[in-house]
Amino acid sequence: MSSRTASLRSLSRATATTTATSPGIRLFSATARRAAPSAHRALVFREHGALNDALSAHTFRALSPPGPGRVNVRVRLAPVNPSDVNVVEGVYPNKPSPETLLPPDSGGTQDFSVAGGEPVQSVDGGEGTGEVYVPGNEGVAEVTAVGEGVSGLEVGDWVVFAKTQPGTWASARQVGARDVIRVDKDAGEVTAAMLSVNPPTALCLLREFVPLKEGDWIVQNGANSAVGQLVIQIAAQRGIRTLNFVRSREEQANNALVKHLGALGATHTFTYDALADRTLTAHIKQLTHTAPPRLLLNCVSGPQTTGLLRLLGQDAQLVSYGAMSKQPLALPAGAQIFRGLVARGFWMSAWYAAHARKEREALLEEVVRLKLEEPRHTVFTVQAGWSDEEAGRRVREALGVQGRSPGGEKVLLRVEDPVV
Amino acid sequence: MSSRTASLRSLSRATATTTATSPGIRLFSATARRAAPSAHRALVFREHGALNDALSAHTFRALSPPGPGRVNVRVRLAPVNPSDVNVVEGVYPNKPSPETLLPPDSGGTQDFSVAGGEPVQSVDGGEGTGEVYVPGNEGVAEVTAVGEGVSGLEVGDWVVFAKTQPGTWASARQVGARDVIRVDKDAGEVTAAMLSVNPPTALCLLREFVPLKEGDWIVQNGANSAVGQLVIQIAAQRGIRTLNFVRSREEQANNALVKHLGALGATHTFTYDALADRTLTAHIKQLTHTAPPRLLLNCVSGPQTTGLLRLLGQDAQLVSYGAMSKQPLALPAGAQIFRGLVARGFWMSAWYAAHARKEREALLEEVVRLKLEEPRHTVFTVQAGWSDEEAGRRVREALGVQGRSPGGEKVLLRVEDPVV
Lengths: 420, 420
Ligand SMILES: NC(=O)c1ccc[n+]([C@@H]2O[C@H](COP(=O)([O-])OP(=O)(O)OC[C@H]3O[C@@H](n4cnc5c(N)ncnc54)[C@H](OP(=O)(O)O)[C@@H]3O)[C@@H](O)[C@H]2O)c1
Ligand SMILES: NC(=O)c1ccc[n+]([C@@H]2O[C@H](COP(=O)([O-])OP(=O)(O)OC[C@H]3O[C@@H](n4cnc5c(N)ncnc54)[C@H](OP(=O)(O)O)[C@@H]3O)[C@@H](O)[C@H]2O)c1
Prior knowledge:
By secondary structure, chain A is of the alpha/beta class. Chain A is 28% helix and 21% strand.
């Protein structure tokens, strides 16, 4: 436990927010190379399972130069999101495509391509050359080589990924140029690494379902999640008042959390347990009686969420985007029939799939403009000097079952190219 | 039990569908009267409770002539719907207004007015003159007297009620002329009695949520409910295919039910239990694979309904309009987030409140044009010769807890004016 803490703590925010970039060399030819590393590393799984069981580290041969329309990138930072945990567990609908990552010492050329639709060359035989899955749905990467016919992207540019399950828990990837979106380095490395999933989710949750104006109230659970903290900030920027619910914790931690969310702009923060006391319900009804909440954002589900329904006004929307409690959500028929409650889901991947590239870019640009506070996080570096065996062990130890730091913070992975 | 059956059985469909009307005398003056009965009777409750506990019969003084803008009506037939049961139980949001129905032998004039907004004169003192509630949300009535300034309604016309909780479980009522809608006698007495709640509900359920075209599939539970049978017929008229779910019953009854629903136009009828066998799911998926169902109509809720969700395609709507199981509905987050399932409610009362009178009339006219088969039903007559005591006892006995006939059929009440 203490070593886990130490290994996470030793990589502080200072590291996380380093935004210096190596200038790189601007290259157009697909065969050109930039201080090329001799190998890369990825975190992979072969079978579904718990994060701290299924993950291992895998060193693989340096990327070949990108073909036409493709680019090589060095992944700088990639978060561990709850959905990544679900992907490894096998309970998420999207799954990375299987890949064959050839070890650096094996023969033959590697026609490496990233997950998500493109063909993947399967290599027969050879120890350690079987198929693996590389998790990681978002991150920030730096372009290291550009294939023929690619416009609008240069070596040194920062990009985020525009298609699901690109496999970002790796030091390098080769991707289609149209599957990445250039981002401004001003955004900062941490923000950029977590740009494409949580902030646009928070933004969409607040604008796609119920028209909200200044002074309106909304309710959310899991309010201290990364998404929850972003919702608080965006709402506060717009004068929308938030009733935030979190799990109860030891008193001091609780006070610190309430204070932290308040500083981000939370109007009120309560624990689910506190709602068992009906006087709190009455108090909230009193507070909100001129504008009863018409939006409940849910990433928890389970009985606590059902309890929140009575805070809602007529014709409200319950928008579910997660189910951290792993329990279903029970809806009383009366709320739906007589009080017009509509319950629906939101999935950022579906939104991306349904919107044109221009709209996606506009969404990300809007996110950057909002200048949101990064959620609390820790960076875990998979160090160049570690063997695959050591790297795997340390990652499993650090991520545990939940993929969060011992302090409950979001973990960002920085996978370094291994020294081989 | 057998006497209950007998008393219900003795009043057959033949009785129920008698449509002959007494021509009546056309009267304009509010003071005029038509072969006026000396008293009326209502089924009433004073405290919420089970139907077979809370209900009693109450003879009350003959209506005074209707004032300006009002009409007196004789209620011909009024159904016992599940929502009426819930009203008596006190678990329904709409509740009739309290009324004071003066006994025929007490002094003073009775300023009787019907529930639902109009002021009700409260009479102090006097045994048996306390406040009561008259249940009954729909029914067909015949106009017996017309107040000044009422146009478009004549004595002898049939009307249905255009506002909620008019208290139709009575032999006579006085209502605002704008709170009734004239219906064509061609509709038939039983159809007219059940015109304003179930058939428009079935029609709205099929047209307000998912655009449906010929060949599409829908799923419904409680398929043998009155609403369910209407849904089957309307769907069949439009070439929409229905997957109907019912509770399992003893084999012969089951076969008879499947046959009956089939004759109405049901494409397939299954029991909830049968779905426990995954091969049925596979079979249905196979059947519907070119047009996976996008509409699930739910009046049952509870775990059986959650089980039906896996029959739905992408972006489906689950529309709840009842919860006969009295259990909440558990929604798996994945269905909402990844499969775009939207869960909402439908309430006919809210629809009426949100639509203008013209639209309501158009809806009822459309219902009549559909020429739908009446759901299976039995008529229970509260006979003129019975004392209030006997009438109350027999009603409680006949309706039981559920308000259905021993054969599970819908009960229609015909409350006769008592002989006093
Ligand atoms: N639908 C979409 O498109 C979309 C997009 C982004 C995220 N999400 C989902 O949104 C959720 C939050 O993501 P995130 O990245 O913001 O997560 P995060 O920062 O890792 O935070 C996780 C949150 O879940 C709470 N939690 C964990 N287990 C819980 C339990 N058993 N009961 C109640 N709360 C529990 C945590 O509360 P404690 O601090 O009390 O442990 C914390 O608030 C996840 O379910 C994720 O999959 C969905
Ligand atoms: N929202 C609205 O505006 C609106 C309008 C009209 C009706 N409704 C609702 O729609 C529902 C049906 O009304 P209706 O007049 O058509 O009813 P009905 O003809 O009296 O039929 C009742 C139905 O409920 C089923 N049922 C009873 N208890 C059940 C249980 N524990 N589990 C599963 N099924 C059960 C019965 O099945 P069995 O034959 O197996 O007992 C039957 O199919 C009611 O809930 C009513 O309140 C709502």
